[in-house]
Amino acid sequence: MAGSVVSDIRLGEGAEDIAFAGMLADLIRQNLAQDPRKSVDFKKLSTTVFIRVTDADVSVSLCFARGSLVVYRGAQGKPGISVATTADLVLALCMLRVVNGMPRIFHRDSRALVRNILRGAVRISGLGRHPIQMLRFSRLMSVNGGPTA
User: Of 43, 50, 84, 88, which residue has the fewest beta carbons closer than 10 angstroms?
Assistant: First the structure.
């Protein structure tokens, strides 16, 4: 099952030249391959996530369409969720601990992420309008746990 999902992830025109775009696509492929339960979230995600890496002057759009993903260079369409932060904090987002389908907010990695959000080092918009999509995206990106069906 995960093999067909993994094949539905590709880089859009212009994104092939951005190492960060390839890294995100590879991370999602690996997460799906390692935990086939994540395909539930992947198949339900239907939004664009815009990520701007402030210290590298790079931005990408991850366009999810219920079981497929295209990663584009820069802004694409109207994102439902936007994240702006440094490269190391993007990686910290991937370390979010997920247990029984929910982020474990008291784990040290999660507490550090919350601190960075509160001090403005990580800016996320769209969370209030699209909380379920953000939860699915977080579980899909996390290397530390997965969803429950």
Answer: 88
H helix runs in the chain, sequence order: 2-6, 19-34, 38-44, 87-93, 108-118, 131-141
Residue 149 lies in a domain: no
Q: Which pTM was predicted?
A: 0.85
CB contact at 8 A, 72 and 14: yes
CATH number, residue 59: 3.30.1050.10
Calpha distance 61→70 (Å, rounded): 8
On the question of pLDDT at 13 being above 80, the answer is yes
Query: Confidence band (pLDDT; 50, 70, 90) for 36?
Result: confident
Per-residue model confidence as pLDDT tens digits over 59-81: 999 999 999 999 999 999 899 99
DSSP-derived secondary structure letter, 107: S
Indicate if the pLDDT at residue 2 is higher than 60.
no
Separate counts of helices (H) and strands (E) for the chain: 6, 8
**Residue 132 falls inside a structural domain:** yes
CA 111 to chain CA centroid, Å, is 18
